[in-house]
Specification:
Layout (H helix, E strand, L loop, with lengths): L3 E2 L2 H30 L4 H7 L2 H25 L4 H26 L4 H24 L2 E2 L2
Antiparallel strand pairs: 1-2
């Protein structure tokens, strides 16, 4: 049985794809998100956003996908379905409930949490499917 390797190409493609899903998601829910977050308007936000936020988002995508790929090699995730199920398990265990708890203690609306975490659910699911299906083995 050949050992699984981390598919770096898949990791990089996914990290870039996350940027696109983020743009698409917040394009769909943007105005509601602005209202729930208590921001004035999207125009002010666009001029105030630091380039570091975009760099941080890309680095986050790279780290997330790399670590998920590494975990998948250890537990031998070998199909898209296994990948999605594992990714959703990781997301729920380590991300969603942590974010929800923090937001609830900060008295933020739960709808804001669902909007913010909705795109993460999509990204984790996408990463799980791609990393589960697009495997790479040691020679």
């Amino acid at each position: 049985m050949k050992a699984l390797k981390i598919n770096i190409v898949a990791v990089v493609i996914l990290a870039v794809a996350f940027q696109l899903t983020n743009v698409a998601w917040y394009s769909l829910v943007g105005q509601r998100w602005v209202e729930l977050a208590g921001l004035q308007n999207v125009a002010n936000m666009e001029t105030a956003t630091s380039p570091f936020a975009y760099v941080s988002s890309l680095v986050n995508g790279l780290l997330l996908c790399y670590m998920m790929a590494w975990i998948f090699t250890k537990i031998r995730v070998e199909t898209a379905l296994q990948g999605v199920l594992m990714a959703i398990s990781l997301y729920g265990s380590f991300v969603f409930f942590e974010a929800a708890t923090k937001d609830l203690f900060h008295l933020r609306p739960i709808m804001l949490t669902l909007i913010n975490e909705g795109v993460n659910f999509i990204n984790y699911s996408l990463a799980g499917a791609v990393l589960g299906a697009w495997r790479k083995y040691e020679a």
